Structure prediction request, 210 residues.
Amino acid sequence: MPQAVFEVVASDPLFAHLPFSIDQKSSRASGLILLMLLVPGLVTLLVPLGLLAAFAAPVLAIAAENPAAAAQVLLGLGLWTVLFVIPGKRIVQHFGTGRKIRIDAGLVTVSERGAMRSRVWSAPLTEYSGLAHHVRATLSGLRHELILVHRSRAKSVLLHTGDHISQSTIEQAANLLRLPQVPAAEIYRSRARGARVSAPAPALAKSQTA
Prediction:
């Protein structure tokens, strides 16, 4: 689930010890704002549908005379509906979602709960490349995030958020997890690219075996 969906509700003392636990939930305020932004588009969709319903008999007569034009109109309304139904569905699904993250000396465990399903997954801490300080633009302004970066974006984990994250906080987290600080661009690297970067060069591998 995207990191932007979550906000930190509670955590253990900030990077003081292992195991380290974090409780997160989806942002209701952001969801409500997004739903409000969809309302004007929904109104523009309902107006032509209402007109079609109000003048059903003449519309059916015209459609019978021009089936190709009627099909184009229906296709356009269908595509317009999809443009608003899918985002609206995703926003509604985010309500009530949350997760609990636990990090011990060797394992990251994430328990996700949602309106549709719940799941638990884990990954060794050694699979994570480091900690990234990421600044995200949100509807309420800039949000600073500290993200534990995995080569698979789906397994990257939000650890801390705030209006500002100090370098001392980043260093404290890095020392606790024994991981380096990495550029924010690492968050967006694909699994394939991460594998190519981490793999040794063929010539180097050959010289080591020799």
Q: What stands out?
A: The first strand starts at residue 6 and ends at 11. The chain has a mean pLDDT of 74. Strands lie at 6-11, 20-26, 98-103, 107-113, 118-124, 128-138, 141-150, 157-162, 181-182. The two ends are 45 Å apart (CA to CA).
